[in-house]
Amino acid sequence: MDHNPDRICVWPGYFDLKSSRRSGRRVPKDASVLKPDLEGLFMAARQVGLKKIKREENISHPRRPNVREGRLWVSAAGAKDSIGASTKEEVLQLIGGQWRQMQRDQRQADKQQSVSQPKAGDRRARAQRKSPTNQSGGFKKRKSFKKR
After folding, report:
1. How far apart are CA 33 and CA 102, in angstroms?
2. Is residue 72 a contact partner of residue 3, using CB atoms and an 8 Å limit?
3. Is residue 13 within 8 Å of residue 65, measured between CB atoms?
4. What is the pTM of this model?
5. DSSP state string for 55-107
6. Are the CB atoms for 135 and 129 separated by under 8 Å?
7. Looking only at Cα atoms, what is the longest distance across the chain?
8. Tens digit of pLDDT for each residue in 5-36?
9. Rounded to whole angstroms, how far apart are CA atoms 27 and 15?
10. Residue 53, SS3?
């Protein structure tokens, strides 16, 4: 592939919270996420305001050849026009901060949904589990006696 100085290559591995800076993370911990993937990276870049983005799937980073994570190509001129970021590091930090916020919001929404009660018409979700003492038609187990 020809070198184009107008393109910035962004890999999901740059935002991995579990990896160290030495092993490839390019953003600070407060701008990194758990289990980064290409779809989340693409959505975060769109949320930041980047318009000129190209997504390539099933591509592996040269330092991580066994992981086919994919990558994004971002137009440097487009990034400067739309969000005012002139360097790759600024673009990465903006995307990382937005992505982290998106993950937090998703986690809170999941927590809210799990706390809420089941729908009125959902019989299976409303059914209560019966304890062995409340079951009808069955015999209670007797406590075992000590052998004499």
Report:
1. 10
2. no
3. no
4. 0.73
5. EE-S--BTTBTT----EEEEEHHHHHHHT---SHHHHHHHHHHHHHHHHHHHH
6. no
7. 89
8. 889 999 999 999 999 999 999 999 999 999 99
9. 6
10. strand
Distance from C-alpha of 88 to C-alpha of 26, rounded to nearest angstrom: 10
Asked: is 7-107 a CATH 2.40.37.20 domain? The reply is no
Split at pLDDT 50, 70, 90, the class of 111 is confident
Q: Give strand pairing partners of 75.
A: 7
pLDDT tier for residue 98 given thresholds of 50, 70 and 90: very high
Interatomic CA distance for residues 95 and 46, integer angstroms = 9
Spatial strand order of the sheet with 53-56 comes to: 7-10, 71-75, 53-56
DSSP 8-state assignment for residue 33: B
Identity at 140, one-letter amino acid code: K
Pick the closest to residue 87 from 72, 71, 74 (CA basis): 74
